[in-house]
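Feature request disguised as a bug: please show the residue count (187) next to Lysine transporter LysM in the output. Example input:
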Amino acid sequence: MNRRKKKKQQNVDYIELIKQKWSSIDWSEIKDKIQQNWNRLPKLHQRALMVLAPIVLLLLLIPFPDSKQEVTPSTPQRVEIDINTSGLSEQTIAGETELTSKEWQEYEVKSGDTLAQVFRSNGLPMADLNALVKVEGNDKPLSYIKQGQLVRYKLTEEGKLDILQLEKSGQSVMFFRLSDGGFGRSK
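Example output, currently without the count:
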């Protein structure tokens, strides 16, 4: 068993120790060394350092705004819109009057019609049909249109398709143009 006595710890005044070290520094010697090295530099380098050193110090001291606050989300934001998704046949059965807006147009599917023929006969862009097919879904409301089915659509000012509404099995399916130019689907 080791029974050595522990030495008592002495209280050290660190501030006084720092003051002693600081006062023991020979500042004139350090100044002479810096000046000798400075004089070795070419005049162009001396001038560049005189300009750049204060700029770097300022940049280090100036606080910059938090970059997280300035970042805008790059992903598209969802916007809630109110769309009447009741079937077209339900709308006419309920005794609603005809559409007052001249922007909406209707087409009743004839026997043997495909949606491509409906687009061609109504002067709708085929590029819009291709974009619609990409978001059609598993129930394929665009692929399986039937005789007597109503197709209602609205065009933008540029003549592109804005909204397309189809009735399928008493349900209305709407396709609408998104802000990125593609289409979205509502059941």
